[in-house]
Queue: 2 jobs
Job 1
Amino acid sequence: MVSRIGPLVEVGKRKTALALHVAGGLVGGASIGVLLGLAGLLLRAVLGDTLDTVFIVAVPAALLYGALVDLGLVPLQITSERQTPGSWDCALGHYPGIFAWGFDLGLGVTTRIPYQSLLVLPFAALLSGNLAAALAIMAVYGASRALAVAAAISAAGSDYAAACDAIQTRVQPLKRIVGATALVIAGLIVIS
Amino acid sequence: MASSARLGGIVALGGLAGLVAAALAGNAARPEIGALPVFVLVSLSLVVGLSTAASP
């Protein structure tokens, strides 16, 4: 991501572009959070308190699956091969393009899935049956993903190739951290 | 060195903001599933989101 988004901020004002990318991520995450929250309210209207039982069983089970895959213990992976189109920068204009890029990544499920634990987030947002909870889960994801990209680009200076090399060495350790976190959270939800 | 410090600072601020959002959502929204599950799921969002910059 850094190698593709990084050069985009070289055109125009760098800080403005990065701020727009973060804003796009926040709006993208919030948008899918609202949609999932509304769908969850519909589920709650249909299922009533049964939805809480479904949540307490299905979400930890999904977290366990995500954790086992991210820890490298299960080879199965669900993913999408779609990437944000590189043409958006030209088609939409520079600043709208980088905002849209953040928006697309902030949605979480429309591009390649780097961690299987990520899939649990929209699933849990839906099953929470609560608009504010769904909004918080997805908006924090969208904003933090975009913020991390902006921070990595900012720290890289203009040497995006070196940044990519550094990032490649951290992929597996980070996957294990995400998997371990998912495992702990599955346990916390079960005992809560 | 300065870049690493700035990177750490930005990520730490983002993490703090995320945890505040998690606490607010967990308490103020009064979710039927309970505050703790919402808090921990928002925390997971934060961990996954911040880790995703390392995705090639």
Note: Chain B touches chain A at residues 3-4, 6-7, 10-11, 14-15, 17-18, 21-22, 24-25, 28-29, 31-34, 36-38, 40-56 (CB under 8 Å).
Job 2
Amino acid sequence: MVVASPMVTGRSRVIARTQVLVPTFMRGRIALISGTVLLVIIAIGCIGAPLFTKYSPTTIDPLNPLLPPFAPGHLLGTDEFGRDLLSRILYGGRYDLAIAFGATSVTMVFGMLVGLFAGHFGRPFGTIAMRFVDLVFAFPFIVLVIAIIAMLGPSLLNLFIALWVASWVSYARISHGRTVSANGYGYVVAARALGFSRLRIIFRHTLPSVLPACLIFAMVDAVGNVLLGASLGFLGIGIRQPTPEWGSIIAEGQNYILSEWWLSILPGIALVLLGVALSLIGDGLADALRPRDSR
Amino acid sequence: MQLLFYLGKRIGQLIPILVGITVVSFVLIRLVPGDPALQLLGNHYTPQAAALVNHNLGLDQSIPAQYWLFLRHSVVGNLGMSYYYHDAVAHEIAVRFPATIFLIAFAGVLTVLIAVPLGTISALRQGGLVDQGARVFFLVGYALPGFLIGVLLILLFGVKIPIFPIEGYGSGFAGHIGHLFLPAVTLAIPFSTVLVRSLRATVIEVLGTDYVTTAKLKGLSWFTVLRRDVLPNSLLPLIVVFGVNLAFLVGGTVIIENVFSIPGLGSLLVSSVSTRDFPVVQALTLFFGVFVLAVNLVTDVLHVSLDPRLTLKAV
């Protein structure tokens, strides 16, 4: 009977959150398509922000503070400084998208490589690397990120550094597990017997069975990173004012939650939409990348 | 006796991680750019004063010697002095810990109350209304940042329909429950998404086992089978899932305490970032790491002692 050793429990933690439950009527290909469409719309809106709004997100207009949505000239109204809310949300989304992709892609590639090499070379390199992964896992993720930002000083770059340092370990664990099982597969054993170089085996033979799991997890991880980035912006220790980031816009709006609730709720909806888009893509990818026989 | 042996073995396995946690917390404070003496002295900086501060903090010694000093101090609970509060960090933590542990426990109970019925029903009626509803709820719930749930709950139940206090910790047990209800709900919603998913999978697995089929064939009522066979076997693994995901709950607490102005460790951590109170951040990192490790140990031991199938000899 197997009992939870640190390795086993650790892996089950990753498994527990590699995917988000998606309603069955929108699973598989529908999830992938609807998620991608939603993400593309958000990305076009944010990257092409100047096309959709003529206001700068930081220009103050003291004559028009706290306009409600659909006010003339301001589709979503203005905040307490008269800044256009639509342009703040669109420009601000650039930072959230940057966190989603910039932070996640780096940790995915690095963690995946560590897992691949650790799984291939075993002792002593692999063991040491995976013990280090266990160690980073011992800390609550948010506490570690906040602690690193605290020491380096709050800034966008340091937020990225903190996310990189704290979150590559999940990928290392997933990729290590897959690599170790792939080592027993016939084609990897055959490739070894044929005397192929280590690098060829790792990248040509092992990587294809490691990459899908990492990609699927990356979507859930991207949601987590965006939420964390926004939470830190909300607490004022991530991206600093007056930079419009969704979390910090929500935090500013909280002062007016009784009367002008849309100042917080609208950027909140944007945040949720981005998260739902990424979750749907993750579910669609999981369905598309799963081997045919195990569906 | 066997349990004691198992406990000793698990603690032995945890020691390397424990040492690692102290190394990380020790290294962390060295990431701070610049001279710690300058941070501490501010306008009163003179080379002599700096030398004295460095000597008092042990910074004039070698790095391994400094680490040894840090370790010896940590073991006896000396976590340094706060720059901001001019007080022992350990004291500051001890004062604020009850609010945090209360919130974590409360959120844990609420999570179980949400997750167990939802996970069981969605497994029993796969694809049914509850299953689909739960999936929609969790698709959105996973993408909803905790602080936004908090803000929404404050708006709804603190302001529009003012039935709950929206900030602080309250006094007395009833006061704590009242004050921490909304924060605990805020934490329980995202955390239950994790538990429902794993519980649903376990219940589906248990429903397919031979003993459940046997119990059904014996003519036992559906409810009896559920109560006597399905739930006990599904809920045991949940203890482990709960334990390993505890870090997720603790992380959420750090953010939510700030939304509801609860005087706990999370609000201490965040305020220490703005006041650049490095010893507090270092001590809290160490404390949270050890705390999560300890709770994991407890859940593991609980799982082993509750599940009669797990023989401790094989462990």
Note: The mean pLDDT of chain B is 83.
